[in-house]
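Q: Sterol desaturase/sphingolipid hydroxylase, fatty acid hydroxylase superfamily, please. Structure only.
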Amino acid sequence: MEVLDTIYNEVFGFLGISQAWEIIKSGDYSAFRTYDGIKSLIYPLIPLLVLLELILGLAYKKPQTKVYKVNFLIYVFNRFVGRFIAIAMVTLLIGWLEPYALINTESNWYWFIYGYIVWELGHFIYHYLGHKVRLFWCLHSTHHAPEDMNLSVTYAHFFLEAPYADIIRTTVCLLLGVEPIMLFLIMFIDGTYGAFIHVGENMIKDARFGFLNKIMLTPSHHRVHHAKNPLYLDTNFCNLLNIWDRVFHTYQEEQTEIKPEYGITRKVNSGNFFDVYFGEVIALAKDIAQAPGLKNKLSYVFMPPGWNHTGVHKTSKIVRTTYLENKLP
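A: Structure for Sterol desaturase/sphingolipid hydroxylase, fatty acid hydroxylase superfamily:
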């Protein structure tokens, strides 16, 4: 009976309907007009879309079942290993850093816009480092390993990536004066939209969204980010506002003649949980063990993926630059 209860709770937890269900059982439907009530209605959207996307994939006979399988295993593993680490880290940082804020903000619409721009800066920094520092790439590569883009990819993360990401994003926000209440609201919006931008072609074929493609980050932009095509490597690091990608020249639109090829450049068995989850960690450990001298060993940890102590580098910057140079007339 206890096993059935656990399964029941995990299913409700995945679908995100527990809070809404409690409100419905209470009969107090006015609670849906509160912030928590609104959240309880929004949380289930992404899990339900994941199921719908899988059903559409089966109908179109393009389900990429191995991607769903591995991402589901990652979700289950992370539920047990890293369930509360990130939120605990955010809480600790609020207590430590809030007194050192460089400016003071208030809870109104224009400070909210400011807060979101600051949050995107923090997200850009974390995400950029996740691609440019090999140690951090070991945490982030799990998210890029799937060879198909669909909503289940949003659950594919190494369990230590969330606390690493939130340390950077929360630190930037708190030091630049974003209030904790506003920060949690921004995190909720960002998490929901950040999941949605992984929507696959089974559900939305052309995800550019017309004129919105110019003023915000769309699923089309994020498909580019997940692609391993030379033109698309290490671009579009933002989540909702693409302002910082434009500032730091990492902005790239999807080209109609270049279909995104998903996955990572390392040969990986995307249907194997251990290769997807631990493959980059193992590869880094092997490079460190074989590298001559302490300087080279440390360089493998902190230099970009593709760096090699022999000088024959295959970093994304070199690959993309070479591609662009060869494309010039």
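A: Brief note, in case it's useful. Residues 81-275 form one domain.
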